[in-house]
Amino acid sequence: MRLDKVGRDFGTTRALEDITLExxxxxxxxxxxxxxSGKSTLLSLIAGLxxxxxxxxxxxxxxxxxxGPERGLVFQTGALHPWRTVEExxxxxxxxxxxxxxxxxxxxxxxxxxxxxxxxxxRLPRELSGGQRQRVAIARALVCEPSVxxxxxxxxxxxxxxxxxxxxxxxxxxxxxxTTILMVTHDVEEAVFLAQRVVVFASSPGRVAADLAVALPxxxxxxxxxxxxxxxxRAEVDDLVRAHR
Length: 245
Known about the structure:
Layout: E1 2-10, E2 13-22, E3 28-33, H1 39-47, E4 54-59, E5 62-63, E6 71-74, H2 86-90, H3 92-96, H4 101-114, H5 130-142, E7 148-152, H6 160-177, E8 180-184, H7 188-194, E9 197-202, E10 207-213, H8 228-243
Parallel strand pairs: 3-8, 3-9, 6-7, 7-8
Antiparallel strand pairs: 1-2, 1-4, 4-5, 9-10
Helix pairs in contact: 4-5, 7-8
Domain ABC transporter: 1-228
Pfam family, one: ABC_tran
Keywords: ATP-binding, Nucleotide-binding, Transport
């Protein structure tokens, strides 16, 4: 996926300016920055829900001109259909692809097992915890097997312990599926724990202030958050966010 000199104006206000990024297949990248730095606006452009004022966005070598199945998107709220069961929510995108019913059920079952929801297929969203609802949303985005998964503050509404569990879960899903992930978060610790690269956005207008490689072991558990190398990198990223807000 490549973004080349992407900008977005809203009237006389420039929300994004000269965003140039290249994300390799299978890479996990987090974007952090102060509120109002244009992080979510950028995800909307990549998802095809909005169009840039300047510049180009390409995924798999093709220009983004609107939404497409090669890009899955998960919001902070999950945005599940409340009248559909877990199984029906996850399989919704496959219905649109007109996949055979037996093949659809097999794929849905695999992804439900992958996200740890086997046995909950018949429950409605109101019967699930916040973490379980986000697992459903992530499974729904992955079941169409997109080349890029876009995550907009997916754990922002969860309590601290559930958030930790979901971070471990997401790294395992990424490892199992090999999907390219671009995630927006305001949580610096979360970004450092999850990503291979952390991109820091500056504000007014939103632009890339820093692009840092995360030189931590690929197999990470929660105890790494107490290690000196992790604490040092978290402080470095936090200082960059504060300096460019």
